[in-house]
Design goal:
635 residues, alpha+beta, six-stranded mixed sheet, 41% helix, binds adenosine-5'-diphosphate, binds magnesium ion
Length: 635
């Protein structure tokens, strides 16, 4: 009997209450969220109402596309009530609901992807003494639900999923972990009870709740009702999908609220694009470009995410088929009657109406950016700083649009020492110049230190710095811009003779003089180089490495090496400067001191490698040779 009771007891414990610790990082994050984000606590209500609205969207879609759960749109609602005696605030919806697994997944883990970035960002921000920005981070990182703990000492979530008969209750104090137990609930949906902290009792006040709801959730599609005892429910918001309304009736504050409500950003949108199109295609778009990068912009698998509606019914929360990946920073809503509700996620990709809408929207975004570039330089500078690097992906992903994207792209100009458009570069070009000269490099500083620039400075030719890794990739797709070829100054033989004729003769004379030295150095370096040549371009440096004409650009090769450890790359050409003192002296000893010549050849080669950001061929030998030369020089 004892055993039986024990077993039964164990069974009951196991069935009824499952105490679980939060996932490793969740506790840490919660702590930061709750303790560091002190201002604007009221946004917790926006987050919970938005979650309810999402759940209602999902149920509405299910009801319209399947037979098992029929419910009228006007029956879908959110209800809020407060109880001053028990110190609770309750938010209830009859949306899709959650089963046990959903509860664990959705509320037990935090920021499913990008946790590390999330933590870093939060910690950075909580150290700084800023106010509103940090709070909004909550919404930005998709941990909206947890904001409830800013005002609650305990949160209870009772939920029943559509199609289930049983419900579950999730309870947590937001510190130690959570418990899940079986519960009863008469209809599908979710009920969240917040046990409000003593210090936050303003959130039990009806007026305050009404004010916050109107402030953040006025343009939700569903009504938010306040239940006050036996009285008739009072509707707190306008409950009209904002994108269906006329532009002229919407204030910028209202756009801004909606922008935050859908989690598109956390300050003000940089650009708002609201259009109604009617004709062969009919659709409405309300799209935003945020004023700064979302945290996940550079994650490998991030796609563009747009909310897709069909006549105000949500089809997809994160449709990847509306805007291309290189416009993934654009957020918002597209509503169209041309796409059937029953279309599956997989079929969306091949939907011809959607493809046309997608094309039109790409153009619209590009046109808007072009307008901004011409009319509002400052705004465009902000935009390019945040998203230019992503836009450039479009140059190779969207072949048809590459010229249009290049037209609005900015690059650093050596001569003007600022970011310029290619059209500005063209205006500065020498009348004889046919090409756009660039140097691809890891960063601006390295580009600036490159010996390849010397001759361009001397001849007053401008060179663009391509310092984003993406640059080498789009360059392989776009060889030219408006008839001008992109030419790497680290590659092959660039003929600059047209730009300064009188120097040419002298250089030729010198070249002849060092022919034999060149040959000897080539013998010494052997397979490490493809060739050794006398340079006609170097001014102040003794030597530099040049990629062979047919080979890969130096920077491209470096990127390949990072991605593939076994990638060797091609040996490069060592160019030496006949007019440089060191070379002249070497020329003098070339037949007398073989050892010194050999060491010098290697030192020159290693120097040239290091200027490109690479390591010497053999570090310990490099050190020995350098010490030896220093010893000689200091004698
Ligand atoms: P997000 O809304 O950005 O996904 P949240 O932290 O606000 O992040 O919510 C986490 C998840 O919990 C939601 O994605 C959803 O799956 C689930 N959830 C939260 N509230 C509800 C609700 N009222 N009804 C159904 N699911 C909900
Ligand atoms: Mg949410």
């Amino acid at each position: 009997l004892n055993t039986y009771i024990n077993q039964k007891f164990f069974y009951i414990i196991k069935e009824i209450k499952m105490k679980k610790a939060f996932e490793a990082d969740t506790g840490r994050v919660l702590n930061i969220v709750i303790n560091s984000l002190y201002s604007e606590k009221e946004i917790f209500l926006r987050e919970l109402i938005s979650n309810s609205s999402d759940a209602l969207d999902k149920r509405r879609f299910l009801s319209l596309t399947s037979n098992q759960d029929k419910i009228g749109t006007d029956e879908l609602k959110i209800e809020i009530s407060t109880d001053k005696k028990s110190h609770t605030l309750t938010i209830k919806d009859n949306g899709i609901g959650m089963d046990q697994e959903d509860l664990e997944q959705a509320l037990g883990t935090i920021a499913k992807s990008g946790t590390t970035e999330f933590l870093a960002e939060l910690e950075k921000n909580s150290k700084k003494d800023k106010k509103s920005k940090e709070v909004n981070l909550i919404g930005q990182f998709g941990v909206g639900f947890y904001s409830a703990f800013m005002v609650s000492e305990k949160v209870e979530v009772t939920s029943r999923k559509v199609g289930d008969t049983k419900a579950n209750k999730w309870v947590s104090d937001g510190v130690s972990g959570y418990e899940i137990e079986k519960a009863d609930k008469s209809e599908p949906g979710t009920e969240i009870v917040l046990h409000i902290k003593k210090s936050e009792k303003e959130y039990l006040d009806k007026e305050r709740i009404g004010f916050i709801t109107r402030k953040y959730s006025d343009h939700l599609m569903y009504s938010v009702n306040y239940l006050d005892g036996g009285k008739d429910p009072e509707i707190l918001n306008k409950a009209s999908a904002i994108w269906t309304r006329e532009k002229k009736d919407i204030s910028s504050e209202q756009y801004e609220e909606f922008y935050k409500q859908i989690g598109a950003g956390f300050n003000k949108p940089l650009v708002t694009l609201h259009n109604k199109v009617e004709g062969t295609l009919s659709y409405t778009n309300l799209l935003f470009i945020p004023d700064s990068r979302p945290f996940d912009l550079f994650q490998m698998d991030v796609k563009s995410k747009i909310k897709l509606y069909s006549n105000r019914v949500l089809i997809s929360d994160d449709s990847e088929d509306i805007l291309p990946r290189w416009l993934r920073f654009v957020k918002g809503v597209v509503d169209t009657s041309d796409v059937d509700l029953n279309v599956s996620r997989e079929m969306l990709q091949h939907n011809s109406a959607l493809n046309k809408i997608s094309k039109a929207l790409k153009k619209r975004v590009l046109n808007e950016l072009k307008k901004m570039k011409d009319k509002d330089t400052e705004k465009y500078t902000t935009f390019w700083k945040e998203f230019g690097i992503v836009m450039k992906e479009g140059i190779y992903e969207d072949f048809d649009l590459k010229n249009e994207i290049l037209e609005i792209s900015k690059f650093h100009s050596m001569k003007l020492n600022k970011d310029v458009f290619l059209s500005e570069y063209s205006e500065e070009m020498n009348p004889e110049q046919k090409e756009i000269f660039y140097i691809a490099s890891e960063n601006k500083e390295m580009a600036e230190g490159s010996p390849h620039l010397e001759v361009f400075k001397k001849k007053k030719l401008d060179v663009l710095f391509f310092t984003d890794p993406i640059d080498t990739f789009w360059l392989s797709m776009a060889g030219e811009f408006q008839g001008k070829k992109f030419t790497s100054i680290t590659k092959g033989d660039i003929d600059l003779s047209a730009f300064s004729d009188e120097k040419k003769k002298k250089e030729k004379k010198d070249n002849v003089v060092i022919d034999e030295l060149v040959k000897k150095i080539k013998e010494i370096l052997g397979e490490s180089v493809q060739d050794v040549k006398a340079s006609s371009k170097l001014v102040d440096s003794p030597c530099c490495l040049v990629a062979p004409d047919s080979g890969m650009d130096v920077q491209m090769e470096r990127i390949m090496k990072i991605q593939n450890k076994d990638f060797k790359g091609m040996p490069r050409i060592l160019e030496i400067n006949p007019n440089h003192d060191i070379i002249k002296k070497l020329n003098g000893i070339k037949d007398k001191d073989d050892d010194a010549l050999k060491d010098a050849a290697y030192l020159l080669f290693d120097q040239a490698k290091m200027v490109e950001g690479e390591l010497p061929l053999d570090i310990s030998l490099f050190n020995k040779r350098l010490s030896k030369f220093m010893g000689l020089a200091l004698k």
